[in-house]
What does this fold into?
Amino acid sequence: MEDPRAKTDASANVDKDPDEWVSGEDPMTPSQASYLKTLCEQAEDEENFEESLSKAEASKRIDALRAKLKL
It folds into this structure.
């Protein structure tokens, strides 16, 4: 039986709200952690980085910092 949560179109997840991600409560990935840390340093906002963030929260913080930095 096919998993109904599986997406056949990978681009469909790009616009999905992080709060709706199936794996959103999982720990952030190493790539997210690295990128978030870099953005926090660039924005001089290092208190925004926490090792214990979920994937969804890390994504939201990354989006906010990208907007702040106009990236």
Observations:
- DSSP finds two helices and no strands in the chain.
- Residues 25-68 form one domain.
